[in-house]
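Take a look at the protein record below and flag anything odd:
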Amino acid sequence: MAAYYESAPLGYGWFLLPTESCSITDKAFRDLSEALKIVNIISVQSFKGGTGKSTISANLAVTLAQLGKRVGVVDLDLEGPGLHVIFGVSDSDVKATINDVLQHKAPVSQSVVDLTSKIQLKAGCLIFCPAGHKLDDILSILDTGFNLYTFKRVLEDLARDYNLDYLLIDSHPGIEKDTLLSMALCDYLVLISRVDQQDLFGSGVMTEVASQLRKPVVLILNMVPSSVSEKEAAKIAERLAELFHLHVLTALPFNSDVLENLSKGVFVLEKPKDPLTKRFTEIAMKMLEAIETGSPDDPSTTQSTSQPVA
């Protein structure tokens, strides 16, 4: 992505987008994503760190698998990977990382950790491709980078070899090359935001980028303070849906149990009877309904109800 121009959509501030002279255009992005229709690719992103993005990615992936779906998860937060901790994956479980695959050092099959038996699924499956968390791994991938076509091939191989229904990509916060590539190849973008002016501002920017790539967007408001009532959260969600022309999937309240868990496990597995676990099931079912009944290529399908899940 060598050539860029500055853009300031809807007063959100200046950021960079590829120009027509760039070899990879938004049309090329859409054409490449068309080739992956065999699997529904969900990119989970946030403008800022600390929104609970990885926690939601892990719990959503497990919940989808518990609903009988064949699910894959890729940790693309290459600068700050953490999903391996939440899933309880140790170095001894890993033959290769997604870093190795993207740098052509290993086939994608060697990076796959099958979590199906670990979470005792009765149907469906869950596979996970961890990112390298050692300093050398992080510095190496940041130095060499990777391109759209390499990443596309990795997703194709995962989808085909493991017959996946859904593939979740946990992306790095903010707008960077890897998040743009993830956005370019996804069918569905899930934005995670706190009820914070900076977060909401950034979510507006990311929504505008997604709209230029014709990607449907849903927003999950997370860690809503206890001082914000459910009625107030609903009003905030309604306003955001109207302002950003997107679907606000739900508003999740701040949960001290999740915080105390310290990312050491998957919440829905450790507390199956907790009300929050029920919320994740409702979120997953709403997403399945939206994906299976909507048209991923039509941004107009992103405008929907703003009421939080009850």
In short: The radius of gyration is 18 Å.
